[in-house]
Amino acid sequence: LEMLNDTFERWEIKLCQAESMLESQPKVDRLEMEFTEQENASDLKNELASLIENSKNDKAGEENK
């Protein structure tokens, strides 16, 4: 019975530590996070399109030589 109580005490300590860590972390606004992710995805798509366009222009320039 004493081992069981010790086990529960350790679990309670770990749980309290985990809860305090969660409370100390700043709250994340899900809407802001989603907007930022979409904005980053849009920036990456634009950069990819630019790289593809530059690659096409480089190939066209090499063919004209």
Query: Kindly, what is the distance between the CA atoms of the first and last residues, rounded to a whole number of angstroms?
Result: 87 Å
Q: What share of the residues does DSSP label as strand, in percent?
A: under 5%
Q: Number of helix segments?
A: 2
Q: What's the main sheet like?
A: none
Assembly type: single chain
Tell me, what's the shape?
rod-shaped
Uncertain stretches: none
Written overview of the protein:
The model has no long low-confidence stretch (mean pLDDT 85). The chain is mainly alpha-helical and 65 residues long. The protein contains 2 helices and no strands. The chain has helices at 2-24, 30-63. It starts with a helix and ends with a helix. It is rod-shaped, with a radius of gyration of 27 Å.
Concise structural overview:
With 65 residues, this protein is mostly helical. It contains 2 helices and no strands.
Write the layout of secondary structure elements.
Layout: H1 2-24, H2 30-63
List keywords for this structure.
65 residues; rod-shaped; mainly alpha; 0% strand
